[in-house]
Each structure stands twice: as C-alpha cells, then as structure tokens.
Amino acid sequence: MTWLELFVLILASYRLTHLLVYDTITSGLRSLFIDVEYVRDSSDELVKSFTFKGEGWRKRAGMIVSCHWCAGIWSSAVIIGLYSFFPGTFVIWLILAVAGAAAVMEDWMSE
Which positions, given as ranges, span the membrane (predicted)? Predict the structure, then answer.
C-alpha cells in the first residue's frame, strides 16, 4: 500500500464515520438503534442524551452509531478489509475521501 492509498483510506474512513454518526441523511438508520433527546445539564446547556433500543447486537449497534470513536474503528476495518480483498472498491473510497477533504476544508474556511 502506498502513502497516497493510505491517505485516501484515512480520509474515506473519516467521511464514512461522519456519515454514520452525524449526517442527517443517516438519521433514519440511527433511529433503528437509538433515540436522541436534548436535555439541559447542570450548567443549563443543551446536551445530547442517547437511549439505546433493545439488547444484545441492537444495543451494541446503537453504541457504535452514537460514538465517532467507535464508528471510526469499524469504518476503518470495513474500508481496509474491502479494499484488501476487492481493490476495485478504491473508487468508492476515493469519492468518500474527496468528500472528506472538502468537509475539512470547509471547516477551515468557515473559522
């Protein structure tokens, strides 16, 4: 694996993780596993509160889609696994990587 391929896979993992955990388009998927509610904490600020649905695998899936650290591990594993066994998937990872790089640039520019 070249450094460029690794960089593309890193950006693809970043974007896929963000897609799973934060993006509105996947809220329907997340709602299968978690309920999200905004509550006020002790300092009167709104914070997200998660209620996991079900037990076993369903609860674990809810834990994954509500945590970018957890989702990042699994996103990386899926991307690297698929790329290792099916190199033709690189175009998918490249698309996600370009979208991820654009998101990072947008964050930088909006600061």
Answer: 90-109
